[in-house]
Amino acid sequence: MAETKKSSANGAAANGATNSGTSGHGEPVTFLEAIKQAMYEEMERDPAVVLLGEDVGVYGGAFKTSEGLLERFGWERVIDTPISESAIIGAACGMSYLGLRPIAEMQFIDFIACCFNQLTNFVAKGHYLWNAPAPIVVRGPSGGGVHGGPFHSANPEMYFVHTPGLKVVYPSTPYDAKGLLKSAIRDNNPVLFFEHKFLYRRIKEQLPQGDYTVPLGKAIVRREGKHLTIVSYAAMMHTSLEAAEALAKEGIEAEVIDLRTLQPLDEETILQSVRKTNRCLVVHEDTKTGGIAGEIAAILCEKAFGDLDGPLMRVTALDTPVPYAPPLEEYFLPNAKKVFAAAKELARY
Amino acid sequence: MKKDLTRQQYLDLYYYMRLNRAVEDTMVKLFRQNKIVGGLYSSLGQEGISVGTAYALEKKDWLAPMIRNIGALLVKGVPPRDIFTQHMAKYTSPTLGKDGTSHFGDLDNLHIVSPISMLGDLIPVMTGVAMAGRYLGQKIVAMTWIGDGGSSTGVFHEGLNLAATQKAPFVLILENNQWAYSTPVKRQVPIENLADRAKAYGITSYLVDGNDVVAVYQTAQEAVDRARAGEGPILIEAKTMRMRGHAQHDPAEYVPKDMFEHWKQRDPIEQYERFLLGKKILDAATKAELESKMHALLTKDRDFAEASPLPPPELAEKGVYCTGDDCHKIAAKWERNQAEVTPPRSSVPAVWKVAGFGVGKGSGGKNAPIHFGDTAAAEEPEEAKLTPKTPAKVVSNGNAKSAAKTPSKTAAGLRARKTTAKVPAGKARR
Questions:
Q1: How distant is the Cα of B418 from the closest Cα of chain A, in angstroms?
Q2: Regarding predicted confidence, which is higher, B366 or A216?
Q3: What is the per-residue pLDDT for B425?
Q4: Which residues, 6+ apart, have CB-to-CB distance to B410 below 8 Å?
């Protein structure tokens, strides 16, 4: 039975801010600016870092994430390519074999489907099969909520979480975006870096001065609570926090975990939380079937079955393509209301 | 102008072709003894291409073979034992048994990129290798092979087009062995010469008789030299014939018998041997010496492979990810001053300079629209030479320096081309 008494969980974590929020300097920056800063600083630090993709140079990227990089680093390091996603990934991989650390941009992450073979069969398997690490980062704007329609709104992360040899990162805050992108560039493995375009210009955060990284494979507790655990990532992390605020008003204290990295998955942080709250709700913007919620459910069944007081619940997008019309897309996507309702139901166990 | 070969070069080509065939003959025996774990693919009749092309590369150059390019691996320095252990899935193989056939590579010493079964993928990968080599100032050339079948993949186009826009020092050998598994080339491609596809990318191409190892080598050498000199990627179509089925399981009954007969008369090794004997480069004593050297090597390497253990089962779960510096220390080998690619020297204005724009007689000055064909090509700005999508090639109209110069007009190109004309079976061409 859920406790209805107002939780005494401390409010400090409740604002969902990262530890950077208090130590920042200067103006708060957007998610997009944080990504640009990460690329700029890494290219400044190491001439082995190069960027290639469609319209990343003169135009500065379709979302202007690489604006100014060409002026600073020149034609050899900021490379405008033809519309050839397979060639972009293939060339990035080949470049990495000589010790470069290429960042390959997908103009929209939906287009990653065009280079699926190159990524999953060539890049991902190299280290396992023939001892060839491919330190490349494939990054691009993902996710819905901006009425981009069925080919500009996808969340294809799970194809790649399912592919051994790839790492998958999906940050939710500017601080993490910058720190994780730097870690991804410095990592010796191919890292897929998803940037939720809904967040690009909608959230701002003060960032610390100087170099910092956020480690891959480490989740973070964004809000502490004791009645249930909400596991989420990317834009849905903010939706989950919003729902948690509403739940708190009804005396339900939800702990919110931001996965940040999906592969490798930080099982320990999830397990620790669920052992405390005994209830778990997973919220993601990816479609339901084959989403990471199913994987987390399996992990909890295997490793924390005795700790569960109720079923694992999930709030996800529908098992459909992303529709275009605003009422359709809103119906398709999870939102705070849906999370709130599911959490309330779960809290009754 | 093609240089004549030295006696040693002639003999090297002969030795590697013989070794290529002997390695494969040994593996056919191992296959029949059930010692090869998976499939076995033959390059019988195509040895001249693998050997002749790879022989044009320097030690520092990079290559990525296809499954039938065992000869190229041998030339690059791979010992036969690696090929045997790979096919037998042994723990001592370069992939420790994780993959078979010629699916292995060596980033550090031999500069070999492992192939995968999805054909065409290596074309952009080797383009990237070529681009990185140029970026680091290494003056390398990257080479890979594709078949008539693989040339129909989308990534063939994407890769070659990127290489062309980047002017990458990259050489692609299109090995036209006339069959993609069971489908003849005429049912795959509606053109006579696949080399003609180079026109679509504005790059140089050659057409060569793949069963004439000297012509193959000379053509490849010229292509490698031109690519290294910065002329951009080059496509070589080498015509040949796959003399076996797709793999050992396939009797290739779909191939007309007289087609096999015709090409059997043109076996690249037998032809070459007649040529060498005629020119007195090879004699019975030298031949016997090479053969005994080869057999000693093959016996030693086959015995090693047969005596090697299979991998321990637990290896299956190891090595998916690089764990960091303890696993691989990744460092680019710079052979140019890094200051050239770091600020402030790397700084440029972010605008396209459209060569020829506004300067042609019909253009009407600076504000004129681009007229294709009526404007003289402007001097390419320094940074644009490394610029992708530079429109210079589009606007320049047969400019002498441009890649539009048809390779077949060079003496070398003509010679190479001539040798592919329908030669009566069995007739020596030199």
A1: 34
A2: A216
A3: 38
A4: none
Amino acid at A326: P
- Structure letter (DSSP) for residue B309: P
Evaluate whether residue B85 is within a structural domain: yes
Active site residues of A: 152
- Nearest chain B residue to A48 by CA distance is B332
CB contacts, 8 Å: B155 with chain A: 86-87, 90, 117-118
Residues on chain A touching B94 (C-beta within 8 angstroms): 130
Distance from the B256 Cα atom to the nearest Cα atom in chain A, whole angstroms: 35
Question: Mean pLDDT for chain A?
Answer: 93
- Show the 3-state SS of B366-397: CCCCCCCCCCCCCCCCHHHHHCCCCCHHHHCC
Q: Which two tokens stand for residue A218?
A: 């480490």
Query: Are A32 and A130 members of one domain?
Result: yes
Query: Mind listing the pLDDT tens digit for each residue in A285-299?
Result: 999 999 999 999 999
Output the pLDDT for position B3: 74
Is residue A310 in a domain? yes
Residue scoring higher pLDDT (A16 or B330): B330
B interface mutation test: which of A86, A120, A138 has the most B CBs within 10 A?
Answer: A86
Pair (B210, B318) in one structural domain: yes
Question: Which residue among A91, A102, A117 places its CB closest to the CB of B127?
Answer: A91
Q: What's the pLDDT score for residue B424?
A: 37
Q: A228 has which bridge partners?
A: A254
Q: Are residues A76 and B389, on separate chains, in Cβ contact within 8 Å?
A: no
β-strands A204-207, A167-169: how paired?
unpaired
Identify the segments of chain B with pLDDT beneath 70.
1-2, 354-430
Q: What is the mean pLDDT of residues A216-236?
A: 98
